Amino acid sequence: MNDEKGDGHRVEMEMCNQDVEKGEMEKFTPGSEESSSTNSLGKGDGLLNRILLWPVNTIAPVVKQHLTILKYMFFGLLIAAYFVYLIVAIVYDAHAAIPLIILTCVVLALVFYELFSKRFYKLIGAGIRNVSSVSKQRSKKALNWVILLGCLAFIVWLLVDILMRNPSQLVSLLGFVIILCVCFWGSKYPKHITWRPVIWGIAMQFIFGLLILRTAAGYATIKFVGDQVATFMQYTEYGSIFVFDNFKMHYFAFKVLPMIVFFSTVMNMLYYIGIMQWFIGKLAFLTQITLGTSAIESTVAIANIFVGMTEAPLVVRPYLADLTKAEIHSVLTAGLGSIAFSVFGVFVGFGVNSVHLLTACVMSAPASLVVSRMLFPEREKSQFLNTDSLKLQSGTDHNIVEAAAAGASMSIGLVANIAANLIAFLALLAFINATLSWFGAFVGIQGLSFEVICSYIFMPVAFLMGADWEDCFLVGQLFGMKTFLNEFIAFESMKPYFANRLNGTISKFDANGTLQFMSERSEVIATHALCGFCNISSLGIIVGGLSVLMPTRKTELAELALRALVGGMLTCCMTASIAGLLFAESDPVAMSMSTTMYTPLLNTTFPTNTT
Fold it and tell me: Membrane-spanning residues where (predicted)?
């Protein structure tokens, strides 16, 4: 009975629900009062929307139809406005507008190159195809003879010039030759060395070194660029002051390291826009057609100028798994044998000359390819012989604000890594020095330390690079600290010597015979020798980073790691030897290095934190 009552109750409830639903539906059927009021509101809204959207609906098709013309008009107006501004600036103060004029000329040259380079190359290619094979061979032989005679003439001129200026600089030439011999004798496959990348790589280093170290215009240009970069990095203080307020008591942590955050942000924005890919691609193309190295080697070597050793391979990430062993060795050597712009501000903060930092950055690219191609010659056929076959990776950010935020976030690991390494290695250095001093005391040796041991080990290296004999002990010590600890500790140890030399009132040796500062030439050589990430900790970082990017090649990475570390050290020594060979303190350029000041494009004063 209860079941029957329950079933009846459920049936009644279902019927009631159906009646309710039917009633609700009737409210909105055509003809009902509520339905008609709703439709009238909808018609009103639709009419209002049509009225409001009429301008958009009218203009949008016209804009879409003439979008290209409108784009050209917009950019044309921007360009016209800029040139009006440039003319006003020149009329207002022509001398002050010189940097603006130079910047405009550079941009125009790049634009015209981009517009007409492909057409120019096509014309050259068509002309070459029309030349007979016999004429090609004759032209090639003639070109080879011209290059050979030019190299011989340059060598003779350089030797005569050095003998007239300062014969002791020939020691750097001896060191350079010894480095090449070490690369040849230590080569994995000496019979397979191709000499084109070696000769062209050396030539590019000498050309760049001569332009900067022997010409006032070249030095002034790089000095100007270095000053602008250093001034630009000073804008980090705005963020540091706001976050840390008075940070002068903790200069390195709150002033120097935040520069890396700022630079990483800017670089990621440039990657998002595509400027960095364009710039790296053009320089890689120049390197590839001159040195004859593969597209991967050239691109990564150039990328290492701008970004760190673990970030540079990301530019060619899709192709890393297909590299030959020689290309992997080149990637490792290029990363370990150079520094990046990301730490430029850090080293400038230590007092390092920005010109020599920039020079070392650029010279290290061809130098690393020379050393790598000699230590581990190519025996396989690369799949990437031409830079046109590469599509450089760009960021996955959706807009420039996201790119800026991502760049700042990416720098956290680098900043933390630098800070942690400095804490660990400085503590380790103090422990090692205390231990060595304790053992030395038992045999009557006072002051035995890791730095002293490094000085004696690397004194011959410093001498062969061209450092003055009285400075070799210190240069060897710094080079050893860079190799066994890291370059940050070495440059930080070098900081007081920079300050003492620039002071001008301090004698070179104190009353106890302790060296107070180095000669300017030794300083230049030491700066180039220290501009590299070739140390034990960095080797672990780059091998670990590449193992993630190319997990199928872990065996080759482990096999090539130590050889690449030696290659990075030889790269730094090579650039230092060339700098020692070309630099002369008697030059007007050299004499003006400590006194000549160039007005920066960017001037800033920093407010105090009032929050």
Answer: 72-92, 98-116, 142-164, 170-186, 198-222, 252-273, 285-308, 328-350, 412-432, 439-459, 525-549, 561-584
Q: Where do the domains of the chain lie?
A: 68-128, 170-606
112-145 burial code (b ≥16 CB/10 A, e <16): eeeeeeeeeeeeeeeeeeeeeeeeeeeeeeeeee
Terminus-to-terminus CA distance in the chain, angstroms? 81
Rounded distance between C-alpha atoms, residue 215 and residue 339, angstroms:
25
Torsion of CA 544, 545, 547, 553, to 10 degrees: -120
CB neighbour class for 476 (10 Å; exposed up to 12, middle 13-18, buried from 19): buried
Q: Which pLDDT band holds residue 591 (cuts at 50, 70, 90)?
A: very low
CA atoms within 13 A on the CB side of 54: 6
Residue pair 307/270 in contact (Cβ under 8 Å)? The answer is no
Question: Whole-prediction pTM value?
Answer: 0.75
Q: What is the 3-state secondary structure (H, E, C) of 155-210?
A: HHHHHHHHHHHCHHHHHHHHHHHHHHHHHHHCCCCHHHCCHHHHHHHHHHHHHHHH
SS3 per-residue string spanning 91-103: HHCCCCCHHHHHH
Taking a C-beta distance cutoff of 8 angstroms, is the pair 365, 333 a contact? no
Mean pLDDT, all residues of the chain: 78
What is the CB neighbour count within 10 angstroms for residue 301?
Answer: 32
d(CA 306, CA 209): 19
Q: What's the DSSP call for residue 381?
A: P
SS3 for 489?
helix
pLDDT in tens, 20-44: 444 444 444 444 444 444 454 455 5
- Residue 276: per-residue pLDDT: 77
Three-class SS state of 522: helix
